[in-house]
Amino acid sequence: MSSDYASILTPAACYVDFCLVPVGTGNVSVASEVAQVQKLLRASGLKHTMHSAGTTVEGSWDDVMRVVGQAHAIVHQGGVQRVQTSMRVGTRTDKTQTAEQKVKRVEEILARDE
Amino acid sequence: MSSDYASILTPAACYVDFCLVPVGTGNVSVASEVAQVQKLLRASGLKHTMHSAGTTVEGSWDDVMRVVGQAHAIVHQGGVQRVQTSMRVGTRTDKTQTAEQKVKRVEEILARDE
Amino acid sequence: MSSDYASILTPAACYVDFCLVPVGTGNVSVASEVAQVQKLLRASGLKHTMHSAGTTVEGSWDDVMRVVGQAHAIVHQGGVQRVQTSMRVGTRTDKTQTAEQKVKRVEEILARDE
Amino acid sequence: MSSDYASILTPAACYVDFCLVPVGTGNVSVASEVAQVQKLLRASGLKHTMHSAGTTVEGSWDDVMRVVGQAHAIVHQGGVQRVQTSMRVGTRTDKTQTAEQKVKRVEEILARDE
């Protein structure tokens, strides 16, 4: 990488919502792989919440991306040859806002309007 | 559309997890647009759950896609010129499984392993 | 759907970029399913471009979402029990801009800066 | 991270297709931010291709995720307070396949069937 760019740091905080899909397993259920990934997330110490369509993780960019990469690695280690993940990633510099605060903010607006 | 394909029906059931982002508003917060969309979803009668990184909706393909399209339309009506949505969509023919059942299945595996 | 919302029309124009993944097939390659979907898209008459990480389709919201739903249906008809798609969807009201124009606009900025 | 997991390496190769959206800029066009990111990608030395709905990057997990994080950082440095990215990420252990090879494989199937 050229010198102008090499010094740019990745964000200190982000959230990632990801949904990992094992491909080519012959098994329609993905629950066992999702459970493996949940154990990894617990071990990571990063704040995370599973929902029915993915898992949201909060932390520094590098920590969060590392754990998602490890999730791919763990599923491969279990014999899955191809892993596909869809992610949403958000960063902001105006304020720190946790996942809970985001939901609460919307609920407040809805309550006010009722 | 050619006759071979015109008769193909869209799936009778699906889930969609979506995250809508208004673009070019000059407002860093998206909570007001998200609240508008939540009201639409309530009015739709479709089963839905908001989480910090999106909203999951369940129903027939046509009903779910229609309501997400209406969500874009409502946000445009509020003056937002550009709307960008990221979606995960899943369909399956082997069984009917609700959002709650998916999460429960993973939690059972985790509990068993502890 | 309540009367306030039932009359809201879905957008007249959108683009969708989607990546469809067959789940539980026992086959690591997804090329055959992708090819099936490309044939469907050709038959649809909608403008579309395949790239290495998905396919971009342009048209009205209803037409585009219908063809993606048909893509799920076709892959299910081929014996795949579960299909997972990741989509990006964009709509705008300020102007009509094709996929080619979007890329060209960025290339102009890059050329100007060199 | 607990010792069992700390040693797990992220994948040596992956592709990421990402679409970055600046939020709260008051500017409907995102072309200027996309151009900034393209310059960063050129400087990174990683193989990448821009299309109308995103950019595909190939490389090791850590290199690719680092450059996407730097893309967020660069857009923030330009004064954008919130950045939202949608990503598709794929890894496989059965073979090495470039972005070009993936498209070619599908085109071969389509040509054979015509």
What does this structure look like?
- The first copy, chain A, has a single domain, classed as 2-Layer Sandwich (Alpha-Beta Plaits), CATH 3.30.70.
- In chain A, a hairpin with a 2-residue loop joins strand 2 and strand 3 (54-59).
- Chain A has 114 residues and is of the alpha+beta class.
- The first copy, chain A, has helices at 3-6, 31-44, 61-77, 99-113; strands at 14-23, 47-51, 54-59, 82-92.
- Chain A has 4 helices and 4 strands; from the N terminus they run αβαββαβα.
- In chain A, 44% of the residues lie in helices and 28% in strands.
- Chain A is flat.
- Chain A has a 4-stranded antiparallel beta sheet with strand order 2-3-1-4, covered by helices on one side.
- At the A-D interface, helix 2, helix 3 and strand 4 of A face helix 2, helix 3 and strand 4 of D.
- Strand 4 (82-92) of chain A pairs antiparallel with strand 4 of chain D.
Work out the count of structural domains of chain A. 1
- Rg of chain A over CA atoms, rounded to whole Å, is 17 Å
Distance between the termini of chain A: 54 Å
> How much is the average pLDDT of chain A?
94
Defining traits:
homotetramer, 114 residues, alpha+beta, Alpha-Beta Plaits, four-stranded antiparallel beta sheet, 4 helices, 44% helix, flat, YkoF-like protein (chains A, B, C, D)
Q: Can you give me a brief rundown of this structure?
A:
With 114 residues, chain A is an alpha+beta fold. Chain A has helices spanning 3-6, 31-44, 61-77, 99-113; strands at 14-23, 47-51, 54-59, 82-92.
